[in-house]
Write a structure and sequence with these properties.
Layout lengths: L3 H8 L5 H12 L2 H5 L3 H5 L5 H7 L5 H13 L2 E4 L7 H4 L7 E6 L9 E5 L6 H16 L3 E4 L5 H11 L4 E4 L13 H10 L1 E4 L12 H10 L3 E4 L7 H11 L3 E4 L10 H9 L3 E2 L4 H4 L7 H5 L6 H9 L26 E3 L1 H7 L2 H9 L5 E2 H8 L3 H13 L3 E4 L3 E4 L1 E3 L2
Parallel strand pairs: 3-4, 3-7, 4-5, 5-6, 7-8, 8-9, 10-14
Antiparallel strand pairs: 1-2, 2-6, 11-13, 12-13
Helix pairs in contact: 1-6, 8-9, 9-10, 11-12
């Protein structure tokens, strides 16, 4: 922990930026040596005078504040010198020196990470394609990486969650800053079952000039990037350019020539020789030999289950019940339930999810009642409930009660 404050000091110097911080680190080897550097040490570097002055400010108030915020918010920090830092990121031109992470820890070098990017105002058909392909890719073993803004980003995140898999969202501000506000529920779901990642410390607002630096990390963590819909000059194209510079695979979905939304992705296919994608296998076949266990170890969703999850309306607001909190409804409406064969249960659900499904099979339960019946810690139970809801396996009823929509074969 004592070394972290020097990393935070270096990466919060005004005007330095990621490239400047990397140059200082290369010169001094460690951020602690940079912290104790003298004026003449920094004079040897090609820096603006006001940046050198910032490096002579040895106050640790800001680093200590960030450390306190991370502890309060339950965030993890990863530096480029850490053994778990992704090798993929180390290899890009300007790797982030520090990453802030809320949620699960991933070994990205062992993941078939696929970035899905596109416009914030896509056509309806592009929304459907982004969600469908994200679900297919995730259900077959890929780790979906995207932003979390409205449009293609949120569709990709939603598709991966509906597949019952983890997802990673890269942010252009602090992981505690929700932007846009419409994505609040997605933030909560991704933090519960996946990870929110940023190179900006908590409290940093999302700014326009943060998105392109964010994009280099998004593509850097991935093996390939899929463009679903974009304009020829757009943030998506900037991400694609980062991917090409980093030696990543680039994929694009073709769109009819008469459609306005076709211009960007069709240009990628024609001018940039992006791989044309119609289904998940068009991407995954490029990595099957390198990651056979990862791509073969999961049972894909059946067509019927996939259609059912894609047809669910996820964006409607949750209704608040007028019934007293924790009270059971007078009458349980029992919907038709899918029977999950015994041999499929372990591939579709975690142990926690199976315990919750068994507990909530006959009557709707509150989260407290589920914890009491299953003895699963509350944090794990809430994460499992989130995943079960996005999979369509559990329904939230009035009074914050949960009911299993699937039946487990005994």
């Amino acid at each position: 922990m004592s070394e972290l404050k020097y990393w935070l000091w270096l990466t919060t110097r005004k005007g330095l930026g990621p490239a400047g911080a990397l140059m200082v680190l290369d010169h001094f080897t460690t951020p602690e040596r940079a912290f104790y550097g003298e004026q003449e040490d920094f004079d040897a570097l090609p820096l603006q005078p006001f940046v050198r002055q910032s490096l002579m400010d040895k106050s640790l108030d800001e680093p200590n504040r960030i450390l306190g915020d991370c502890d309060r918010l339950g965030l993890r920090m990863m530096t480029i010198h850490d053994a778990v830092y992704p090798q993929r990121l180390r290899q890009i031109g300007v790797p982030p020196l520090v990453l802030y992470i809320k949620g699960k820890a991933f070994r990205f070098d062992e993941e078939v990470a696929i970035g899905i990017v596109g416009t914030r105002k896509p056509a309806a058909v592009s929304r459907q394609r982004a969600e469908r392909l994200a679900m297919e890719l995730a259900s077959k073993g890929a780790l979906i990486v995207s932003g979390i803004a409205e449009g293609i980003d949120s569709c990709a995140v939603t598709g991966a969650l509906k597949a019952g898999r983890s997802v990673v969202s890269l942010l252009a501000g602090g992981v505690d800053r929700i932007f846009p506000q419409e994505s609040r529920r997605l933030y909560e779901d991704v933090a519960a079952v996946g990870a929110l990642v940023s190179e900006y410390p908590p409290g940093t607002p999302h700014k326009g000039d943060h998105f392109n630096p964010r994009n280099r990390i998004l593509s850097g963590l991935c093996l390939g990037v899929l463009a679903v819909e974009c304009e020829p000059k757009s943030g998506t194209m900037l991400t694609v350019n980062h991917a090409l510079e980093q030696g990543r695979e680039v994929y694009a979905i073709p769109i009819g020539l008469e459609e306005q939304c076709a211009r960007g992705t069709n240009r990628l296919i024609h001018d940039y020789k992006a791989r044309l994608v119609e289904r998940a296998e068009d991407i995954l076949e490029d990595f099957a030999d390198r990651f056979p266990a990862k791509l073969a170890g999961l049972a894909p969703l059946s067509p019927d289950v996939a259609r059912a999850r894609l047809s669910k309306v996820e964006d409607k607001p949750r209704e608040e019940s007028s019934a007293p909190k924790g009270s059971a409804p007078a009458e349980e409406k029992v919907p038709r339930r899918e029977l999950v064969p015994r041999q499929q249960q372990k591939t579709r659900f975690t142990d926690d999810e199976l315990d919750i499904l068994a507990a909530a099979a006959k009557a709707s339960l509150t989260a407290d009642e589920i914890v009491e019946k299953t003895q699963i810690p509350m944090k794990r139970a809430l994460s499992a409930l989130t995943m079960l809801q996005v999979q369509g396996a559990v329904e939230e009823r009035p009074g914050r009660r949960f009911y299993a929509l699937v039946e487990l074969e005994q």
